[in-house]
């Protein structure tokens, strides 16, 4: 059986993934301009991946006789990922995505440590896999950020 810390981190990661899905989807809808198209397409693709992460986390919680949080238990935290007032401010969205990815990476690193301490190799393996995905997202959006800051 896994520790309470592992379950808490799984629940946090689940809620963060669901919030990320909402914010990525919203930003993919509201961004305007020719220069926004590549970012919008990337966000649309990432929505499906992040939703898959939430599904995996939710299933792991169920396997541990816990449950993912519902909407009443949800507290939004991704201020920097809110849609910008100026719908052409692509850099604001890129910066918000990077903040969300950094937060996810930190959560998955904490989950890896907690799962290892709890002798829970299944959760540890899941966290390593999800960490890899989030680091790949971060790399992609760092590239976008470099390009937009150069201009």
From TrEMBL:
<feature type="domain" description="Ferritin-like diiron">
    <location>
        <begin position="1"/>
        <end position="151"/>
    </location>
</feature>
<dbReference type="InterPro" id="IPR009078">
    <property type="entry name" value="Ferritin-like_SF"/>
</dbReference>
<dbReference type="Pfam" id="PF00210">
    <property type="entry name" value="Ferritin"/>
</dbReference>
<dbReference type="GO" id="GO:0020037">
    <property type="term" value="F:heme binding"/>
</dbReference>
<keyword id="KW-0409">Iron storage</keyword>
<keyword id="KW-0408">Iron</keyword>
<dbReference type="GO" id="GO:0005829">
    <property type="term" value="C:cytosol"/>
</dbReference>
<dbReference type="InterPro" id="IPR009040">
    <property type="entry name" value="Ferritin-like_diiron"/>
</dbReference>
<dbReference type="InterPro" id="IPR008331">
    <property type="entry name" value="Ferritin_DPS_dom"/>
</dbReference>
<dbReference type="GO" id="GO:0004322">
    <property type="term" value="F:ferroxidase activity"/>
</dbReference>
<dbReference type="InterPro" id="IPR012347">
    <property type="entry name" value="Ferritin-like"/>
</dbReference>
<dbReference type="GO" id="GO:0006879">
    <property type="term" value="P:intracellular iron ion homeostasis"/>
</dbReference>
<protein>
    <submittedName>
        <fullName>Ferritin</fullName>
    </submittedName>
</protein>
<dbReference type="GO" id="GO:0008199">
    <property type="term" value="F:ferric iron binding"/>
</dbReference>
């Amino acid at each position: 059986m896994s520790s309470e810390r592992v379950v808490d981190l799984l629940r946090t990661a689940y809620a963060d993934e669901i919030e990320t899905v909402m914010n990525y989807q919203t930003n993919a809808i509201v961004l305007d301009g020719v220069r926004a198209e590549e970012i919008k397409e990337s966000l649309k693709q990432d929505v499906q991946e992040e939703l898959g992460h939430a599904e995996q986390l939710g299933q792991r919680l169920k396997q541990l006789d816990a449950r993912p949080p519902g909407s009443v238990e949800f507290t939004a935290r991704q201020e920097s990922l809110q849609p910008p007032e100026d719908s052409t401010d692509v850099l604001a969205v890129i910066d918000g995505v990077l903040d969300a990815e950094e937060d996810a990476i930190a959560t998955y690193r904490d989950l890896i440590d907690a799962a290892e301490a709890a002798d829970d190799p299944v959760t540890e393996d899941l966290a390593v896999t999800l960490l890899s995905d989030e680091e790949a997202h971060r790399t992609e959006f760092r590239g976008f950020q470099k390009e937009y800051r150069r201009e």
